[in-house]
Every structure is written in structure tokens, then in C-alpha cells.
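Deviation from plan, reported transparently: adenosine-5'-diphosphate complex.
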Amino acid sequence: YAIWIGDEESGQVVVVLYDLALIRAAEQMQLDFVGNVSHELKTPITSIAGFAETLLSGAKNDPQSLDKFLQIILQESNRLNDLVTDTISVARFANPHPIHPQKIQVNSEIGRVLTMLRPRIIERDLSVQIKGDTDTTFVFDPAEFDDIIKNLLTNAVIYNHHGGEIRVEYGLSDKNFRLVVADTGIGIPEDDQQRVFERFYRVDKMRSRRNGGTGLGLSIVQAIVQRAGGEIILHSQVAVGTTFTVTLPRKPAKEIANNQTTADT
Ligand code: ADP
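Because the crystal trials were delayed, the predicted structure below was used instead.
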């Protein structure tokens, strides 16, 4: 689609070219996203309102129902919180946004996320093995680094079998930082392996929901990795396990210095 703007006097012509198909596709993606988010938000909201009403119309007088329904209300509120947090992360990628690279102590970042996941790790009797030089540092935006580790590790926990294993491996090469998160869980069928990076795509919706999944985690990880010029590779076999390998380029020292100046100002 082209617009011609002519100027008879000067004889000059300005041509503005639009790729309407691209613009329409982007608009449609936005509409789909808003539709999906609204749909996902509705479920916990309906549930919170429903249980609150039931309590008010008498169930609060029964201590057992009171306790059970309040638990559900709390659980659904947490789910709303997760959905909103993930939606904000996704929205960040819709616009160019500033990143603030800093030196990250990789081992302590992994430790921090594992501490957060500890109750679920214990509940599922999982063993976690971490391989990597504890002194390793890597320059990256800390919030984005946290998003990568948190989402991959959370999945390794919630899609694992009881008594399963998780292996986290990290290290630096000349040009890259590499992170491997492997589990001995339920695995991902071959047909779904490409699709799990799509927003809201879930192999088993019920299992994801039950464990507080939003269906946005891997799309967030992929967006961060791609923007950083890295890659994420998935190997998985049903009933055997899943391995995600993330490779992120190390920035030359000069670029880091520039970025940090930007971040500080
Ligand atoms: P969710 O919040 O549902 O976990 P993600 O975007 O993180 O959303 O993952 C999308 C889907 O990919 C999950 O619902 C699950 O079906 C599948 N998946 C992701 N990680 C794993 C894993 N480690 N093992 C098995 N399935 C996984």
C-alpha cells in the first residue's frame, strides 16, 4: 500500500509505503493477546466472587467451609497476581524499553530462585544438582535474568515427577554464557515442542493452572533471549524429561561500560 504526495511546483514526489498485511497481523496479535488475558483473568475473578458470596450467604458460620473457601480465595488471588505480573513482563516487550545491565552473581541468583521454590521442591521430593563455577559473573539486566531462571526452574519443578531430579548447569565460554536446566519430568510431546513458546500455549491446561502456571513463562524467556541476540533450545522426550539450553552472548567490555553509564543516568 503506497501513498503518493506530489508537489506540482517543485515536481517532487514523496512516496510512503506501508505493509498493510504486517500492520494488520500485529493488530490482530494485540487483540488476541488482550482477549486471552481477559479470558484468563475472568476465571480467578469469577471464583473469588463466587466463594465470597457463598461465605456471605451463610457458609461463614461453618468453620470448615470458612477455612476451605478462604484458602481458595487466597489461592485465586495469588493466581491473579501471577497473571498480572507475567502480563506486565509480556507488555514490556511490546515497546522498546530500557535495560540496565549489571554484573550478576549467577550462583546466588539461582540459589535465590531455588529458595523461593523450596516448599514445592520438598513437597515433590525433588533433588537438585547445580554444576558451575560459583565465582561466575555475567553482565545482564537482573530483572530479565531473574525471569529466565525463575520460569525455567519453576517449570522443571511443576512438570517433574515425584522424586524426580533437576540439573542446573552454567558456564562461560569466550563469547557466550550458557545455562542448562534439565528435568526428569513428564516431557513435552514432539508436536507441541515448537508451540510451547507461544503465549498461553499449554500442553495440559489443567496441570498448568493447578500449579499456578500462566502459559506466558516460556514466551517471556524466548523474548528476552532473542532480544539479547541469544538462543533457546529445547530437547524433550515424553515421560523421560526436558532440557532447556539458553545461550546468551557476552558483551564486549566497552559496550557494557556504555550501557552502565546509560543505566546510571
Ligand atoms: P506455564 O505457565 O503453563 O508453565 P510456560 O509458557 O512456562 O507456561 O510453558 C508452556 C507449556 O509448556 C506448559 O504449560 C507445559 O505444558 C509445557 N512445559 C514447559 N516447561 C516444561 C517442562 N520442563 N516439562 C514439561 N512440560 C513443560
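The beta strands are 2-7, 12-17, 102-105, 127-131, 137-140, 165-172, 176-183, 231-237, 241-249. We consider this an acceptable substitute for the interim report.
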